[in-house]
Amino acid sequence: xxxxxxxxxxxxxxxxxxxxxxxxxxxxxxxxxxxxxxxxxxxxxxxxxxxxxxxxxxxxxxxxxxxxxxxxxxxxxxxxxxxxxxxxxxxxxxxxxxxxxxxxxxxxxxxxxxxxxxxxxxxxxxxxxxxxxxxxxxxxxxxxxxxxxxxxxxxxxxxxxxxxxxxxxxxxxxxxxxxxxxxxxxxxxxxxxxxxxxxxxxxxxxxxxxxxxxxxxxxxxxxxxxxxxxxxxxxxxxxxxxxxxxxxxxxxxxxxxxxxxxxxxxxxxxxxxxxxxxxxxxx
Length: 283
Hints:
The chain is α/β, with parallel strands linked by helices. It has a single domain, classed as Dihydropteroate synthase-like (TIM Barrel, Alpha-Beta Barrel). It has 10 helices and 10 strands. Helix 1 packs across helix 2, helix 2 packs parallel to helix 3 and helix 3 runs parallel beside helix 4. The radius of gyration is 17 Å and the shape is globular.
């Protein structure tokens, strides 16, 4: 996948390192709010194995308040401008705003990661004109409302239907099929049971034929099942990542890059060994 001149090899699973330039993200809010610390963390995640770095300037945790377009730009653009020239791996911009998409790609980002699946007015046109890949995520409601008693008759079927509808909207808007990735949106407008059902049947979404991106890192679903606080959710999150890769996920979004990278590459080696009798492809 061509991410503005930087290749992303999805023949093997990759880790998307999370870099939140926010004061209020649920796990690392404030940790990398300064440009210098964010740049250092971005470079460190690549040495830990990240195949792509996801930079976001607006928290999407449940109940998070939106930030202005200018505030988001002021947070992310300086970091992208410093990281893009020195990283061999692509940068993804985590945003819902068309203006931020355009500015981020102009600054050096090579992918758009949109939790709103390009539903903002002008988002499809903006994404189309950038020419970079786009990840479409399922979310019911907004970060402010998404966890207000979410209900589904069949969460896997309904998430799949939503993603197929967004694919058609993107194709109609001029975004080619080979530029699209899908994210079922674990934790976005779903109960713990919904999340577990989605992962249990993730292979059904993988069958759509688009690269799948998933994110479980430190999320509340882990805390609910294991009764663990945010600082102690690394190992269960790695287990979820491996389960997702086993079912066809291509990219795992994570705070804990090195451990996640090791786990998913080992999982993929076991999964794919019968198709690779001459030796397992490693980094």
